[in-house]
Amino acid sequence: MVYKKLTNAEYLEKSAKELGVKQTYRDGAFQIFEHNGVEHKFLSSSSDGNDSVADRVCKNKIRANNLLEHWGYPVMPSILYTTDEEALEFLTKHGKIVVKPLDSSFGKGVTINILDADDMFEAISFAVDKSQSSIVMLQKQTTGTDHRILVIGQKEVFVMKKNTPILLGDGVSTIRELVDGENSKRLRSFEVHKPLEITDRVNTLLQKLNLSEDTVLSSGEKMEWDMAVGVEQYRIMEEVADDTIDIIKQVSVEISSKLGMDLIGLDIMTDDISDINCPYTIVEINSNPGLSWHMKPAVGKSYNVAEALLKHTFGIE
Question: Where are the alpha helices (DSSP H) in the chain?
């Protein structure tokens, strides 16, 4: 089995056929569907049911962050990169930060765990290179685990926990061999989870830790695979909707309603999404969220969210 992740458009096309919804037009990620004389347009997972202004706001991470803060929701401190001096001041104030393109998705161009100036400026250059707008934002990095909250029709809520891959040393295998072992497992079981890669950038980060791909991890030693470019693509997705406290679900639906969005993805950081006493912070909003993680998670129940989106859009019971 090889790594094959269907696109949002492909999942919607497949679910439409199963529901008897007719596809009348497709051009790449853009599709038009018709059912009972009613047509609706989709661009990837984003439909014509989304408020167009809110959609544009969501695509600007700083603007969306400011709006959420204005509404009183807990958000991560963030700034746009303008000068080296301001960036250094932000890093000094927060200690550990994330650098990301303003307009990226799926972790493209994102660097986490930044602790010093050299790494920060390298990350800024990398983010600029991966950004369509060449605009970069800096964001405080907090503790906890990242979760994706998917809201459909301002009502249905699906929750995915993004677990960081961990290499477990056995005292014999090198990092390269441990990566190969993890990838073998992914290709057997995790259809939508991208194989780990040891790129030039990963090698550079390993060198900073006085490691290399030929280093043998001692028995029981753990290495979190959070150094990769686009780290989100490598995480092990676990469906945890049933464990999620009601307040997080309610807040997610409320934000979706305020924005006027038929579909949004909220990224939320918390140590324990099942604990009502555990604080949470909203990292960002995505107006064109991926469907695949919920369709085929590595752990937990799968949900046909493409079907749920089409049913909501066309009023199918």
Answer: 8-19, 52-58, 61-70, 84-94, 117-130, 175-189, 200-208, 246-259, 292-295, 305-314
